[in-house]
Design goal:
Elements lengths: L17 H14 L8 E5 L2 E5 L16 E3 L8 E4 L21 E3 L3 E9 L6 E9 L9 E12 L6 E6 L14
Antiparallel strand pairs: 1-2, 3-4, 4-5, 6-7, 6-8, 8-9
């Protein structure tokens, strides 16, 4: 909100003129909240409410950190790329701080996982990297695995087709995820 309401010239028993009503209207307009990025304000007789569209609403694009997409160099040389970002404050191995070059890996069917290792007997994150595994590995006493996407090849048609199913979450590594 913009600030406190300015004192008004209204007094009991005194008539209200157009100037006073205009001053009150201007003050109310000055204090009106505005819509912002990712939400809309709705006014009703009882006040204001926020409308936050669902990420899956039609027309809305779901923000997908670490989005996996194809990065093929030729029809026979399949590759995938992972969008740039930090996990637990660390840049995954193979990613450059300026995302140049982009993080590109050879295509293989399976789960794309973030592999987070922790310093032994501590809560400090040591390394982060991406790997592809047939199944999501079980967490160990020093390593936690977080699914990023599932990639596979559909060979049911004449031409094989690459399929990607992004999980669309940002891993939040924690020693609580480790095996005891």
């Amino acid at each position: 909100m913009a600030g406190p309401i300015v004192s008004t010239p209204f007094q009991r028993g005194r008539p209200v003129g157009w100037a006073e009503l205009e001053a009150l209207r201007n003050e109310i307009a000055r204090l009106k909240p505005n819509s912002g990025v990712g939400y809309r304000l709705n006014q009703s007789p009882s006040g204001w409410s926020l409308s936050i569209p669902s990420a899956t609403a039609s027309g809305a694009k779901r923000v997908c950190p670490f989005e996996v997409s194809t990065a093929n160099t030729s029809p026979s040389d399949w590759k995938f790329t992972i969008a740039w970002g930090l996990i637990g404050g660390k840049l995954p191995e193979g990613m450059a701080p300026n995302d140049d070059p982009s993080f590109i890996q050879d295509w293989e069917d399976g789960w794309v996982v973030a592999v987070c290792t922790f310093v032994a007997n501590d809560v400090v994150l040591d390394t982060v990297k991406f790997e592809v595994h047939e199944d999501i590995p079980a967490n160990t006493t020093d390593t936690a695995y977080y699914a990023i996407a599932y990639i596979d090849t559909d060979s049911s048609g004449e031409e094989p087709v690459q399929r990607i199913r992004n999980v669309c979450i940002a891993p939040n590594p924690s020693v609580c995820d480790l095996a005891i």
